[in-house]
Amino acid sequence: MNHPAPAATPTDFAAWMQVQLARVEQALSDWVGADAPAGLGEAMRYAVLDGGKRLRPLLVLAARQAVAAADAHDATARAGHDEAALRAACAVELIHAYSLVHDDMPCMDNDVLRRGKPTVHVQFGQARALLAGDALQALAFELLAPDEAGVPEPVQARLCRLLARAAGSSGMAGGQAIDLASVGVALDEAQLRHMHRLKTGALLQGSVMMGAACGQADAAALAGLSAYGAALGLAFQVVDDILDVTQDAATLGKTAGKDAAHDKPTYVSLLGLERAQAHAQALRHDALAALAATGLPDTRALAALADLVVHRAH
Amino acid sequence: MNHPAPAATPTDFAAWMQVQLARVEQALSDWVGADAPAGLGEAMRYAVLDGGKRLRPLLVLAARQAVAAADAHDATARAGHDEAALRAACAVELIHAYSLVHDDMPCMDNDVLRRGKPTVHVQFGQARALLAGDALQALAFELLAPDEAGVPEPVQARLCRLLARAAGSSGMAGGQAIDLASVGVALDEAQLRHMHRLKTGALLQGSVMMGAACGQADAAALAGLSAYGAALGLAFQVVDDILDVTQDAATLGKTAGKDAAHDKPTYVSLLGLERAQAHAQALRHDALAALAATGLPDTRALAALADLVVHRAH
């Protein structure tokens, strides 16, 4: 999709995605654990490499593509923004990966299976899992603020700002705290939505806004992208809840049915399966409408990712 | 010490320190846990407020003072750099605080007492302690990258870079991993120094360099400040090892003698008490010599902090 094309087709998107995934995997492999002490680097790489759908990195790169037109004829600006976007793509994945490592620990969800492999604390012990998660969060910010990579420092600062907010107590970590406090508590839909908006939504929406920060976008474009990210983030969680009851562990690559087992409120327990499925479709529609409102010339990859999120099987 | 004075006296420094500590305590109280869900914010504030020597924040602010002469006559630049330094001072303290929360957990040091109070996981449970630590790390970077505080974005980017490197796998987290792997292992002095250079030294030296990034400093000044930070960081650890065997828990505010109990190598176990004390004095001398080599006009607060580190009783 680096060439101008009049319309998106599934083939276009599949080819684009394949190229982007290869870039992300290579960059993660180059950057994760490279200068860590052996035992720590090994746990960090285990947590990040060879697994994961890389949805968040793809959102960053698709949003970067949507705002790329403004610097298409300035090779230096383009190279700096492309490098920034690749770093941002890896950084959001590191935040996601660290949250899974800590979330799986015995004092949290106590999960032993993740992406079809033993979880990090099962493989390396709890102490090393704790440290690996901590080091992955620091590495995310280190990637965003390189001293010699051609990324303008104002872009670096904005990326750090967006990621810190998405990851912290008013974002992902805050949502996890609400989730923790909600076991066995009857949440209504508004409370459930608030919890998920922080727990998973903030980082998904943050991924979109970080991609948008790697280029030029006016206020209308940013508002549209933000609305897209919010709808997609919620859709992701609704579908997650649906898959938790409709798929088995082999398909999911993690323990199935665990929400019900932990007596955690979900969209399925709240709305029933059929209305939850309709809700996911409505959110997909909202996401696509928000994209149309951005006025940006090429939002095809973002649109395809909304489809992917709603129609995925794991 | 905001007024020009010809020489440092203990009274000068005490007054300066009192003013700076009040600024830091107020800022931490304003910023920590402010927009976190209740249970999480409470644990974050418990971990950070009302305790701690604030050595790292003082190092940031003392280094900022050492480079402040360059913008003394530009009110806008001065205000931006002062704000940046206060944020950096709080950010390094949040990284330090989160590392203590995680380090005290049962899967790490399993400590129940810290700064004379029950540790965070004892008070709030392990899950919330884990999340509070994670959220404190994110908040550190959030403080460094504000969108409306007059801090130039290039300064924000440099502060994020310095903090991420000091906190991550080639800094503090890396040192903790080496420490973890060294229990019951006979380290020689070079290995012990490498471990501490990462575990505690990186963040102490990083504090100095972050302060220096809040202003203008030439290569010679940066090299001198870096050498000062390295010597002070090591001195801090040598003194820590000495205090662990010479002080009781009431004075330390934490469990005493735990290094020996955990069969961890220390400077005292390696050098003996007397040579360890001489080593601390030699490092203090190195730190002061490095300051003299910076060519900076006012390094009195940094010099006084080196004295404080070596002569402290807890």
From TrEMBL, chains A, B:
Pfam family name, one: polyprenyl_synt
SUPFAM superfamilies, per the entry: Terpenoid synthases (SSF48576)
GO molecular function, one term: metal ion binding
Keyword annotations: Isoprene biosynthesis, Magnesium, Metal-binding, Transferase
Cofactors (names): Mg(2+)
GO BP of this protein: terpenoid biosynthetic process
Coiled coil: none
Domain of life: Bacteria
Keyword Magnesium applies: yes
Key word Transferase present: yes
GO cellular component: cytoplasm
Family the entry assigns: Belongs to the FPP/GGPP synthase family.
Protein's UniProt name: Farnesyl diphosphate synthase
